[in-house]
Sequence to fold (196 residues):
Amino acid sequence: CGLNWVVSALGGDTVLPPSAGLGTIVHEAMERVPDGDLERLRAVVEEHWPELDFETAWIARKERRRADLYIERLHAYLSAVARDGGRVVAAEGTFRFAVDLTDPDAPVVRAPDPERAAHQALVNGAIDRVEVYPAGAGEHAAARGQRWTEMAAGEAGERVVVVDLKTGKYEPDTESAVAAHAQLSAYQIAVQEGLV
Fold:
């Protein structure tokens, strides 16, 4: 009805669509089962599946197949992390920084400063997961884009990997889209600045 549309358009609709709920469930599975045990990952989906409200039974079946596929992929990824000697250093790691816009040709990342608020763009968020690997490990070719280059070694030879779990239908699907993705760029800055 018209009233429901107005309430929803003004932000009053607090019910997430099933696709958003699916993403939330898969994210929770990654957090609760960091070792990737397949049965425990599936149990998280099973526990929360009744919370989702689908318009029809056939849509529910289709989305359940998609959830199962995501869980199988997550299991494969987390198993590869373990094989490569990766360790989680942050899960839902929050960060906050300011970009000083005083000189638009050379923006500077710094701590937020209330005295300079008019000249700063505040950026804050949470990274799904940050992993650290020994030298030479953590490439995960199957989880990377079409044309990727080998990661550089970090301090002490370790490699840092930012994991952004994508379960939506509109994630960046080309290397140029990934490079231009503001959210992923913010994650890179947060890690480079040691904020996570």
